[in-house]
Sequence to fold (225 residues):
Amino acid sequence: MVKENIARLQGEIYRTAIQAGRNPADIRIIAVTKNVPVDRIIPALGEGVTDLGENRVQELLDKQPGLDPGLHWHMIGHLQTNKVKSIIGKICLIHSLDSWRLAVEIDGRSREAGIVSEVLVQVNVAGEETKYGLEPLEVADFIREGMSLKGLSIKGLMTIAPYTGDPGEVRPVFAKLRGLFNDIRNKMPEVPLTHLSMGMTNDFLVAVEEGATLLRIGTGIFGGR
Ligand SMILES: *Cc1c(COP(=O)(O)O)cnc(C)c1O
Fold:
């Protein structure tokens, strides 16, 4: 099941990227493993999946020792400042930087550990009350100020689109994030933004069309949670 799902997703992503005039090699699947036990994750790894995403620190820490140490782990969910200490150095990318306080904590803990942590700024593009993330208008200044924090390196932007089955509704959200990404790249070439993390099981093909480089896919790989 998992194998077939990944093969199908890879085919769809490849075709959609080509149609959109993009290089499929610029797009990576992050297999979202929240609520998926280790024995169900292993079959996915033979299929070219090298990146795993979790939204809870404890779950990530519990699973990590049981899996190949060469895997890349992504923290994709809201991160509480008191949990930062336990994951610094154990993940390749934090997608959910959503406050200055969290930035300062990641910076301090990373410098203590002698590393630089790579992060994405989460943007609440649709302005939903229930979602974390900066408002689009705050992002450029936040990134400019973030350059003073030497323990972290801002690599791009992330968003979670509103939950809807209608691609017509999510497309403007993704397009807006890409517009913001391009604006910041033009205005601040000294901050090398490379990643746009957007697109989940319901909307990843629209995200590919709109420029996503990291797709966070759970249900489409492992089935319903
Ligand atoms: C759960 C989750 C996903 C994956 O969602 P699916 O719809 O199962 O693909 C992606 N991003 C975040 C932040 C999540 O929490």
